[in-house]
Design a protein that fits this description.
The chain is mainly α and about 475 residues long. It has one domain (about 5-390): Up-down Bundle (Sodium/glucose cotransporter). Helices cover about 75% and strands about 0% of the residues. The chain is built from 20 helices and no strands. It has helices at about 5-25, 30-35, 45-55, 60-70, 75-100, 105-115, 115-150, 150-200, 205-215, 235-250, 250-260, 265-300, 310-320, 325-335, 340-355, 360-385, 395-420, 425-445, 450-470, 475-480. α4 crosses α14 and α7 (about 115-150) runs antiparallel to α14 (about 325-335). It is globular, with a radius of gyration of 22 Å. It is a multi-pass membrane protein. This is Na(+)/glucose symporter. One of its GO terms (cellular component) is plasma membrane.
Length: about 475
């Protein structure tokens, strides 16, 4: 089966409606605070939903079922650490963010260490997000290409253009409220696939349990202390906590959503509940992977170019017209939670206003903000186009990039919270050592990416503390 005009109409209608809905928020953008933080007006439940949608990309939608289809449910060990990490972020990071009138998370680093460390953290964020979200956009284009036959480059450009248009004009409010809508769209799509598989499998859920149990698909916990395995209990607990502290506690992409809440309490409520919902939805996606495994034991499996294609192949080969189009729209929904507004916020507040034009008026700031949003959108388009030659799992690629550079920034935040003895120079040195250690580990060792954030933050913190012992006191005071 291939998609027909009804499916294409559903997909096109969804993308157009999403773009129109996002640009609707342009009328509320009266200042840069509105543009980047929605005037602190987002209720806690919307904070929860936007965080869930932000964490759930096409990488999740097709990559997690593929992980269970080819392996088991070991991935579920990772979100266990996510939940614990959120509690720590709510208790440690959020009160500090809401004590000041912050526009970006990296302003906190300047208060503690000075502008150089702030700029380093912000630059790492911009580099990391460009790569990770470029992969995210490519993944969506890959799915669309599989089910429609439209070449990946054209799909990247079409989806990227829609993302840029509604984000550039609608600002953070557009991103957050489209996230809320899209969470329900992609969860509806996942449930449709779940029940379609349940109906298609001879023997129903009993057959899924039997086939999955026999093949070890329901295995979750691996208590081995093997640093080369991506998903173990210890990697999930320790690595998952560290990654969450980095992404939800220091990364502007998610911190910006938290800062859009009226208070630290509202942000914390939404953040912690989002961890529970993410855990449940990962369980759903993994169950779909086991169901796909069972189904393709009963019928001939399609020829795959890569494991990530298994879910979209099922959609186009088995689901009726209209429904298949809705599922593709749901996959698009999981992808279009853009980071380019957060990247623009960092560009404007951490670089433009800090080094270029400290006295810029609101009109100038808004003009620069629009241009920065457009610019970073184009960068992500270029990255996505380059991902066509990537030969590894999109799930592991996207998450490993986030983990690789998250550690040094997290280390700086943790040192800043823990002690006032470390100078700016020592902190920059520590971040350099942490990043160098991670690059070595990434290129020369088989250590799994789930450990990167923990190792990077630990090495950064220890190196900064050690360097602070030999840094002259006057230099430390001048840069602190």
């Amino acid at each position: 089966m291939v998609l027909n005009w009804l499916d294409y109409a559903v997909i096109a209608g969804y993308v157009l409606a999403l773009t129109a809905f996002g640009t609707y928020f342009a009328r509320f953008q009266r200042s840069s605070k509105d543009y980047f933080l929605t005037g602190h007006s987002v209720p806690w439940w919307a904070i929860c939903f936007t965080i869930v949608a932000t964490e759930t990309s096409t990488i999740t939608f097709i990559g997690v079922p593929a992980a269970a289809y080819t392996g088991n449910m070991a991935f579920l060990q990772l979100p266990l650490g996510y939940v614990i990490g959120r509690v720590i972020v709510s208790a440690l990071f959020l009160p500090a963010y809401f004590r000041g009138d912050l526009m970006t998370s990296y302003q906190l680093l300047e208060w503690r260490f000075g502008p150089a460390v702030r700029s380093a953290g912000a630059a790492i964020f911009l580099f990391t997000r460009s790569l990770a979200d470029g992969i995210r956009l490519f993944t969506t284009a890959l799915v669309i290409a599989v089910v429609t036959g439209i070449p990946v480059p054209w799909t990247v450009v079409l989806l990227g253009t829609a993302m840029i248009v509604y984000t550039m004009y609608g600002g953070s409010a557009a991103v957050i409220w489209t996230d809320v809508v899209q969470m329900f769209v992609y969860l509806a799509g996942a449930l449709i696939i779940f029940f379609a598989l349940l109906n298609a499998i001879d023997g129903g859920w009993g057959a899924v349990v039997a086939a999955g149990s026999a093949a070890g698909k329901f295995d979750v916990f691996d208590f081995s202390l093997d640093f080369t395995k991506i998903y173990t209990f210890w990697a999930g607990l320790i690595g998952g906590v560290a990654l969450t502290l980095a992404t939800h506690g220091t990364d502007q992409f998610l911190v910006q959503r938290l800062l859009s809440a009226p208070s630290a309490r509202d942000a914390g409520r939404g953040l912690i509940l989002s961890g529970v919902l993410v855990l449940l939805q990962f369980g759903l996606f993994l169950a779909i992977g086991v169901m796909l495994f069972t189904y393709y034991q009963q019928v001939a499996a399609p020829v795959l170019g890569r494991p990530d294609e298994i879910l979209p192949r099922f959609v186009i080969n088995t689901l009726p017209s209209g429904v298949a189009g809705f599922i593709v729209a749901a996959i698009v929904a999981a992808a279009l939670s853009p980071s380019i507004n957060a990247m623009a916020a960092t560009t404007v507040n951490d670089f433009y206003l800090r080094y270029v034009n400290e006295t810029a008026d609101e009109q100038t700031i808004m003009r620069v903000s629009y241009r920065a949003t457009l610019g970073w959108g184009i960068v992500q388009l270029i990255v996505a186009l380059g991902c066509q030659w990537m030969d590894r799992s999109v799930l592991d690629a996207g998450l490993s990039i986030l983990s690789l550079t998250a550690g040094p920034v997290l280390g700086a935040f943790l040192v800043g919270f823990a002690t006032t003895r470390v100078s700016a120079g020592a902190m920059l040195g520590g971040m350099g050592v942490g990043l160098a250690a991670l690059i070595y580990i990434w290129t020369a060792t088989p250590v799994a990416w789930t450990w990167y954030a923990f190792i990077g933050s630990s090495v950064t913190a220890l190196a900064a503390l050690a360097l602070s012992l030999v840094m002259p006191a006057p230099l430390r005071k001048a840069q602190a």
